[in-house]
Write a structure and sequence with these properties.
The protein is of the alpha/beta class and 295 residues long. It has one domain: Spore Coat Polysaccharide Biosynthesis Protein SpsA, Chain A. It has 11 helices and 13 strands. A 9-stranded mixed sheet has the order 5-4-1-6-11-8-12-10-9. A two-stranded antiparallel sheet has the order 2-3. A hairpin with a 6-residue loop joins strand 9 and strand 10. It is globular.
């Protein structure tokens, strides 16, 4: 498949239930939890826009309508703010003029690969980005780097990875490098959350992918895995077994991953973003220093 100079479409998965963040997620999606001044998923959409993406498909689920509301215009609110409060007006998401946003629903929790498969008509034969809506990548421009690497290498799938502590690798999808290690390398295997002690490496998958349309045939050949779900890692393993080229790009030093998967990671993310807030960061830092003195 000829590689276009720019990937223009992204698929953002936001159908998960967020059970590890209950009760905060009982009536709202975890992707809409605030981190600093914005909900989690807004950071993801801004990341796509900065990478030159101009069409986004959200794969949603039940009780996710607030995501659609967030990225839709609110004329009544805009009118109420008007020109009297330009600071507040500027904070409203205004992606409708920059991106074309679409939605489809995954009615049953049948897995990540099935969610990606719902995007087939949307992406057609074009390469596309897949991002998880509960993971923020801060700093750098990871997706733009991934697109460039994908085009240059001719891979059918390019994944982002980061090195984690070996004792934590079993918590992630983990890749098996094929060649010498570096920032950009081919792999010969991938395992979703391997049993402790069986990890092929400590390179953990970061949920950012650039994929060609071959992934849809691989998904059709994927068997249900853990939890009787279709896992994206298993579909990528199908590509590898078909002798297709799958490559990884490591996070740059300035790129930081925040998975909003449980309260520990959520609290840490909120603290980091609050500390960097240009208006309130100093006050938050002073508060934390006073608290630390009493611990």
């Amino acid at each position: 498949m000829a590689q276009p100079s720019q990937v223009s479409k992204a698929v953002i998965l936001v159908a998960g239930l967020g059970t590890r963040l209950l009760p905060a997620t009982k009536s709202q999606p975890k992707e809409m939890l605030p981190v600093g001044r914005k909900p989690v998923v807004q950071y993801v959409v801004e990341e796509m826009e900065q990478a030159g993406i101009n069409q986004v498909l959200f794969v949603t689920g039940r009780k996710k309508s607030s995501i659609e509301d967030h990225f839709d215009r609110d004329p009544e609110l805009e009118e109420r703010l008007g020109s009297d409060d330009l600071e507040l007006s500027d904070r409203l998401p205004n992606f409708d003029t920059l991106l074309h946003v679409f939605y489809t629903r995954q009615s049953e929790q049948t897995g990540q690969a099935d969610a990606v498969n719902l995007a087939q008509e949307f992406v057609g034969d074009e390469p596309f980005v897949v991002a998880f809506g509960d993971t923020i990548i801060r700093g750098g421009n990871l997706v733009r780097r991934m697109v460039a690497s994908h085009r240059q290498s001719g891979a059918v799938c390019t994944m982002a990875v980061e090195q984690v502590a070996p004792e934590d690798a079993h918590r992630y999808g983990v890749v098996m490098p094929k060649d010498g290690l570096g920032a950009d390398f081919a792999i010969e295997g991938i395992v979703e959350k391997p049993s402790r002690g069986t990890e092929p490496s400590n390179f953990a998958v970061v949920p950012r992918y650039v994929m060609n349309s071959e992934i849809f045939e691989a998904i059709r050949l994927t068997l249900p895995g853990k939890g009787n779900e279709l896992w994206l890692a298993d579909s990528i393993e199908v590509l590898i077994k078909q002798q297709q080229l799958v490559r990884c790009l490591a996070l740059a030093p300035e790129e930081v991953r925040y998975d909003i998967g449980n309260f520990e990671t959520y609290f840490k993310a909120f603290i980091d973003f609050a500390l960097s807030d240009e208006k309130y960061g100093y006050l938050v830092r002073q508060h934390l220093m006073r608290k630390a003195a009493s611990l």
